[in-house]
Records
---
Amino acid sequence: IDFPGCLVPHFKYQENDEHIYNVHPEKCCGGCCVSANICTGKGTLYMPFYFHDPNTKAVIGGEYDDPSTPQIRKLWAGFAKECCTSADNFAVTFPPGVD
């Protein structure tokens, strides 16, 4: 795990010591914060972590805010579950070509 920004989690995925993806949410404020949108629920009801090319830093397979773009989303499970358990819900859309 790598935290290049002040408050933004950033994960590196590797296979056989080869850097395949960076996985992190969309950032703002010079990379120090996660970009949120209260109107759509991004950053409040769900948090999308997008797959990025490690060399170009571009989003793989789409663009930010497109639900069909490959991503890992932590989903809001409701007040009771979020408050009273440590369980988390995720939705995963993989990049093209992943076996």
---
Amino acid sequence: AVEALPVLLYTLFVIAFGFAGLIYICEQGNIPTLLDALWLTIVTMSTVGYGDISPVTVAGKFVTSILTIVSGLYMAIPIGIVGNAFSKVWEDRERLHVLKLLR
């Protein structure tokens, strides 16, 4: 599971900065800086949704909607990795219990 962490972090940064750029371009009059667009992207990806910054244009709303879907799919990846690691440990529990009894 640890081996997958760098790839997951790289993918997270690519998604965050890519969508921040798209939102910044779509929301030129509403979102003043790229940092604000990155803030909106992070808040949207984490599904917190503070509401302090929100898209107003149709293109901005569309990009943010796509970001929400992509973020949900992205967040499912680490859950699958952790679940798989848990399953492997759970399958090994009987062998570990026998080893503990033999000591």
---
Amino acid sequence: RRELINYKKLCLHMWKAGSTVEKDLRQLGSFFYIDLVAETQSEEQRKLYSDVSNTMNECRGAVSVIWDARYFGKAICNLPRHPDSGVPWKFEELPESLEVW
């Protein structure tokens, strides 16, 4: 149980750090924004914006996965000891209840 609580705390710290990085990447995406359809931009500008956008989407996915891991760790810590109490709805609806499903 103690290890799971520490894991949950680690997930919280990673989620906070990932959210900060995601915010910074959104700002970079806004700064380097170009219209990819228009032919007026250079190939270097297109590649830069495309790289920032791809990295931002990967970061957003990783932050969502970390949130799911923390939530399920928290749900496991709060499971009742008696089997007749049932399980939380998030467990019953797996895998559709995952954020990244």
---
Amino acid sequence: IMNEATYLACVNVAFEIPVHPGANPTHPASALGPQINKINRKFQNVLVEHNKHLLVHKAQILAAIPDRYLNILENDTWGYKDMTALDMLDHLVDKYGSVEPEDIDRKREKLSEA
């Protein structure tokens, strides 16, 4: 896990935490049925995309991090269903600290020597 400046230097794109679109869409006071339906559909599409992003981020973390580092967060019945990617990242930083690119390079060199 790296800080924002390091991440930006690596990928040249700032990471933005997905923001929930809200509980319900807002409709103009004068909106009629077709307009309300259109607004609702657009809102639903935005909500589905938001949820997809959250699931993808969580799946990437679960694929990249060995289970022993996250299994304390896992529920016996529901697995990681109630955990967000941000919860997982916070746990990793709090429990294990952060990893800098130099740390990764040193580990790669050490592994290639073996």
